[in-house]
Amino acid sequence: MQSSRTGRTGSDVLVVGGGIIGLVTAWRAAQRGLSVAVADPDPGGGAARVAAGMLAAVTELHHGEQTLLGLNLASAERYPAFVAELEAASGQRTGYRACGTLAVALDTDDRAELRELHALQRASGLDATWLTGRECRRLEPMLAPGVRGGLRVDGDHQIDPRRLASALLTACERAGVVLHRDRAARLTVVRDRAVGAVLADGRALGADQVVLAAGSLSGRLDGVPDEARPPVRPVKGQVLRLRVERPYAPFLSRTVRAVVRGGPVYLVPRADGELVVGATSEELGWDTTVTAGGVYALLRDAHELVPGITELPLTETRAGLRPGSPDNAPMLGPTTLPGLSLATGHYRNGVLLTPVTGEVLAEVLTTGAPPDFARAFTPLRFGPASPASPASPASPHPPVRLERTA
Ligand code: GLY
Predict the structure, then answer these.
(1) Is the peptide bond prior to 279 cis by the omega test (within 30 degrees of 0)?
(2) How far is CA 305 from the centre of its chain?
(3) According to its UniProt record, which reaction does this protein catalyse (predicted)?
């Protein structure tokens, strides 16, 4: 066990949750000279094991989410330097590819929706170029002949979230982060202050500060007072993995996505030949069943977009849970309970927001407050006297769209 600054057995910081958000928090805090422990039965797992890894600040823009867009762009901008530093620290590759994205339309309705998105992107000062169907197919010859037009977004890249998680885990270990491979069962609160957690096996871990970064499970830790408990709910996503055999070149060179019959579908081609097809978005509580309906809908829509995918081996089907927040934006920073901070609620942007989350939480843990650019994402915005939410103060849309049901 480590010894904390206050002399108690434990650490300066205990991070509850060892997914990519918990690990980046732990790594960045350790780099600032804090002693850090992480509690997770399966560190490096969580939603990152399912996620496709699109860094889609521009193509996943929604009305009413302009404040969130600022954070997303800040994180996308940090990605190249973050990846270089993480790969050097871990000795591992992350699969980061600056490949860009092509969002296409298959029919008149899709095209109208894409035109709306383009107008919103331009109004937000973002780079996106409208292409005819023929121009789309010239870029990506495997696209269906029926593609009616598209948006070329050269700034939306991708990373392999499994490699990212593995690299973060190694970087944490090399930085001296202590991993407790067990579930945190209960937050320890003494005299109205979080001072650690008790693990499922009964071990008590002390810490000067606790960060709750348990993804969709963040609202379920016992011992957290109601007013500090994050309003996070699980949003199921089913994702498929296919394999493109060598040579990869004729298949897809960049992420291709579309809205088909009102539901988004995306194909993310990795440099190693993996092709990820995602994702459903289902409000079904804690269910992580891969359903025939979900797989069917994804394959049907992906096939309409890129007919050649039916030739490829289907290597994996999996479902995971996004941590949804009431306004689709993350909760980053101190709670009403002294000693307890949050890094959760990233919803569909967890991979994209990993670099900036590490930076924000390191600042919170060393100075007590987030940097100015992240203040809008305070967890206190959901409190009784909350300021306007960052993501959707006047959104014409409901906070979460049920994009497709299996
Ligand atoms: N950002 C992609 C998804 O959540 O499905």
Answers:
(1) yes
(2) 25
(3) glycine + O2 + H2O = glyoxylate + H2O2 + NH4(+)
Q: How confident is the model at residue 396 (pLDDT cuts 50, 70, 90)?
A: very low
279 CA distance to ligand 1 middle (Å): 7
pLDDT-derived band at 390, boundaries 50, 70, 90: low
pLDDT of residue 402: 27
Q: Are 64 and 42 in contact, with CB atoms under 8 Å apart? A: no
The protein residue with its alpha carbon nearest to ligand 1, atom 1, reads: 348
Which residue in 203, 214, 147, 208 sits closest to 180, CA to CA? 203
Give the residue-averaged pLDDT of 108-125. 95
CATH placement of domain 11-49+163-232+326-382: 3.50.50.60
Report d(CA 343, CA 17) in Å as an integer. 10
d(CA 242, CA 299): 11
Distance (Å) from CA 56 to ligand 1 centroid: 9
Q: What is the CA radius of gyration of the chain?
A: 21
Q: State both tokens at 170.
A: 């190694």
- 60 C-beta neighbours (distance < 10 Å), count: 22
| Ligand 1 atom nearest to CA at 239 | 5
DSSP 8-state assignment for residue 80:
H
> Model confidence over 276-285: pLDDT tens digits?
999 999 999 9
**Domain regions of the chain by residue span:** 11-49+163-232+326-382
CA-nearest residue, atom 2 of ligand 1: 348
Fill in the amino acid letter for 251: F
Q: Which helix (H) or strand (E) holds 134?
A: helix 133-139
Residues with CB under 6 A from ligand 1: 54, 60, 237, 278-279, 322, 348
